[in-house]
Structure formats: C-alpha cells, structure tokens
Amino acid sequence: MTTDRRWLAFMVLTLGSFMIVLDTTITNVALPSIRADLGFTATSLAWVVNAYMLFFGGFLLLGGRLGDLYGHRRLFLIGIGLFTVASLLAGLASSQAVLIAARAAQGLGGAIASATGLSLMMTIFTAQADRAKAMGVVGFVSAGGGSVGVLLGGILVSTFGWHSVFLVNIPVGIAVCVLSLRLIDAARGVASGTSLDYGGAITVTASVMIAVYAIVNGNEAGWTSPQTLGLLGLAATIFASFIAIESRTRAPLMPLGLFRQRNLSIANVMGVLWAAAMFAWFFLSALYLQLVLGYSPLQVGLAFLPGNLVMAVFSVSISAKLVMRFGIKPPLGTGLALAGLGLALLVRAPIDGNYLVDVFPSMVLLGLGAGIAFNPMLLVAMTDVRPEQSGLASGLVNTSFMLGGALGLAILASVAAATTNASLGSGVTTVVALTDGYHAAFAFGAIFALGAALLGVRALRIAPQPAIAPQEFETTEYAAAAD
Length: 483
Known about the structure:
The structure is a single chain. The chain has 17 helices and no strands. The protein is mainly α. It has 2 domains: 3-188 and 253-481, MFS general substrate transporter like domains (Growth Hormone, Chain: A); 197-252. Helix 1 runs antiparallel to helix 2, helix 2 (42-70) packs parallel to helix 4 and helix 15 (390-425) packs antiparallel against helix 16 (430-459). The N and C termini lie close together (9 Å).
C-alpha cells in the first residue's frame, strides 16, 4: 500500500471513529427535546444514554477479539453498518422503546467498530514516526469529539430538531463503508484458525455489562443500596468465573499473560483515571456554564471551541514531534499534568464568572494537555502488543476509557450532588450550592488527571530511544511520503 493510500485509509477510519465518539455527547444536547416529544420521565430518559453505554462498554472486548479471529476490516464494516442502520432507526423513532433499542444497537455497532478500527490503524502504520502522527489524530478525535458534539448538537437541535442528531450519521456511515471497501485491504484474521472462547466471551461481556449498569444507575439507586452493591458483587463473581475459564482453556478470549505486559496494564489504569478527568471537563463544565452562568447550548459549544482548537493543533501536528524528540513519558506526564491544572483552575470559578478570566484559561490548558497526552497514551498501550492480539488490546484500552468515563462521571456527579445538598442545608442560594458542588467535582477530576500523570512518569518502563530532532523528523516524513 502506497503512503498516500495509507493516509487516505487512515482518514476514513478516523471519520468512522469520530462519528462514534461524537454520538456519546451530541445526544445529550437533544435530551430535553426527546423527553418532551416522546414523553419520557426523568428516570426513563437516562436510558437513552445508558443503553448506548451499556452495549458499547459490554462488547468492546468481544468485538476486538472477533476482529482478530475473522478479520479487522470485515468486523469494522459490520460495526459501522450496524451503527448506521441503528442511527436511521433512532432518527425515525416515534416511541420510547424503539429509540432505546436503536441506541443499544448503536452501542453494539460502535463497540465493534471502535475496537477493530484502532487495530487497523496500527496495522496500516508500522514506522514509529507515522504511528506517532496517526495516534496524534486519534487522540484529538477521542478527546475532542465529545466537546465538538456539544457544539454540533446545539446547532442541529436548534435548526432541525432532535431527530437530526441521529440522521446526520447516515451519510457519514455510508461513506465510511464504501471508502473502506476501496482503500483498506481485506485480510484474514491474524488469529484465524483459533476457535472463539464462548465461555470467556459470555462471562466477560456479562460482567462488564452488569458493572456498567450498576455504575450508571448508582446515583439514582444509591451507592450503598442493595441493588448497586448486589450488581457489583454479581459482576465481580462473573468476572472471577471468566478468569477461571481463561486460565484453563486452550484458546482463551483474553490470554492472562497479556496483563503481564507492564505498560499495557499501566496504560489501562491511566485510561480509567484520564477518562474520569475528561468527563469532568466535558459534562460538569458544560453544566456550570449552563446552570450557573446561564449559557445556551450553542454558547456552551462555542465556549469549548478554544480548547478544541488548541487540542487539534497539538494532537495533529505537534504531539508526534514531541514524542519523536523526547520519547513517550515526558509528553505523557506533562500533558496530563497540564490537564489537571486546567481542572484545578475551575475549582475557583465563581457564580458570576467572566469567560475570559475564569473559563478560557482552563479550556486552553485542558485542550493543551489532552492534545499532548493522548498520542503517547495510545502508543504506550499498543506498542508492545503482538499483531494477533492487537484487536483484543484495542478493545481493552477502549473498555478502560469507557468504564473510566462511566465510573468517573458517576463518582463526580455524586460528589457534586452531595456537596450541593450540604450547601443547600446551610441556607445558601441554589446557584451558590450548585457552584460549590461543581467546585468539589472539578477538584476530584484534577486529582484523577494528576494521579494518571504520576502513574505514567513513575510506573511505565519504556526503553530509551534515540531522540529525533525536529528537522530530522521532517526529513523522515518527506522520505516516507516518497515511498
């Protein structure tokens, strides 16, 4: 495959990933309109989001392994196709049941496409410089897609109504499928010939889905309620069965030796912490802007724009050069620390905050940190993985981000709610109480990001590599383009 075709194929894969990432937040903007139109209650409305998260998180590992067995391109096309059809059903939904079922199907398709898409990217690019550049773009899509969704969702809902946030996926999904068939070579699964571990597949999928269900309902049911504790205990029991099955089967879904790869294991823990911090940024800062400062959905999207632009510049064009020049650990630790500082600054945002003084600096620091950190985090998670396990490792990384986001959002929302209730009990106004709650949640988010930074700097074991000066990196790019 020529260099030009590799990058075209990568752009198609990135477009598919962007569509899936976008869907996690673009729907949130449409929730009030969906509730009014379809008659959801406050409790049932949560399932428009939860159904997607449940199936997305539950099937990431299985989707990645199926790609290893039956071919990454084939499973990527199945995932994108399912996601596109489900988007059509969601956009045309006229009842609660149809919309929730369509959202579940979107989650399933998104899980399969996400797990296999990253594996295809790592297969397309084998040179370190190319991988570094590609992972920079992936980092921007992963980190920036959520906040772009807030802006795009506000525009679509205001102009065309809530159906448009789903229907917009259809032409994109069709284009991704057609271009994938033309640009990405079909190949047998790198682990073909191995039978699927059905026991492992059933138990790990069930345990993750039950855990996600317990987490996303934790605030409503209560974190110490019999329902939440019972479901988490059941998930742990089923996961223990999964471990037992994997230790005995001859062709395990997840070889337990995979966790002996130190960097992969640490990267997954960092992914959980980082996703929790990013959800503090995406969701809680949006709530602060809307409920405290009185911004409209469109104004919230515009408020995120500076951070998105900074993130785009660094993740797409600068982060790769930093990795090539300084290695993986310094940019990773620096980026996560900057993001933690950005969240820490939001802890002092007042009830009558000024955007330029109280919000803009945090947005820039968060965009800068995410733009620098995502590239090396994905690289360190995938670099040491053998080709026949790339889909599984990709699913594992995505699962860590998904569970980290769900768990982090649940924890941060609980912290915010508890602090707000305590403040209301002391007699302050609602706006002041809400602000106190968001401040507490931002503080926890900053701790998560700084904890991930410390873990990356102190725990990762990466062999030193010769630094490549910026001018040498440009020469490497030029030489690669001449292939």
